[in-house]
Amino acid sequence: MKLRVDLLPDSHYPDVALVIDVLRATTTAVALLERGAGGLLLTRTAEDALGVRAVRPEVLLAGERGGLTIPGFDLGNSPVEVGEAAVAGRQVVMTTTNGTGAAWRAAQSARHVVLAALINAHAVARHALAVASEEIAIVCAGTDGRVGLDDVYAAGVIAEYLLALGDFQVDDGARIALTMRRGGGDPGEALRGSGHGATLEKLGLGADVDFAAQLSTSRLIPTLVPGDDVPGGALRFLAG
């Protein structure tokens, strides 16, 4: 079995793709489904999200640009904010600066797409091993087209779990992520020390960084579920 880590999204995933935007999209996605959201519809643009609401006015809109809530949206991209929101039973349409675009790219080719974060790291590792037939790719969303230490560290955590569960042929990206994990300190230290973590701290969103640094506190696995009833341009993820 092959294990690869892409430090930025690629365009060819033949088997399983675990998409990571630990600060904060994939962490928030897990939090939304944990709070009982009836599903997530990920869109690449805010305009696409508004288009979904035009045909499904009952949905909630969640998203950010530059770390801040998009004007007119119900929620931002904060896992802490989710804990105070009434999302149970509601579909949530989500669009973010980096994470939703990375998920869209992976979905163009992968047979299985899962949203991964530190909070569900162990669960997604076990799930990936159970469904993979030839390769597990851990896809780091990055930040504004640049490699993000936070995502690479989280990829290293998941890669470490996978290596404890099975035998893999690892690529250089996986070796980089594992080196980052082993030398990067504890999750809180690594995330706070990343450029993205520092930016969120400056925006007053340090609580989100602390939330995202929790390790394997959730068994929830947001899984891509295609279907003809999904609005154009959106990806539907359900709790697995």
From TrEMBL:
Catalysis: reaction(s): (2R)-O-phospho-3-sulfolactate + H2O = (2R)-3-sulfolactate + phosphate
UniProt keyword annotations, A-Z: Hydrolase, Magnesium
Protein EC: 3.1.3.71
Keyword flag Transport: no
A single GO molecular function term of this UniProt record: sulfopyruvate decarboxylase activity
Keyword Lipid biosynthesis: no
Cofactor entry: Mg(2+)
Domain of life: Bacteria
Enzyme superclass (EC): hydrolase
Classification via InterPro entries: ComB-like, ComB-like_sf
Protein family according to the UniProt entry: Belongs to the ComB family.
NCBIfam families recorded: PRK14100.1 (NF010700)
Name of the protein this chain belongs to: Probable 2-phosphosulfolactate phosphatase
Organism for this UniProt entry: Deinococcus wulumuqiensis
Gene: comB
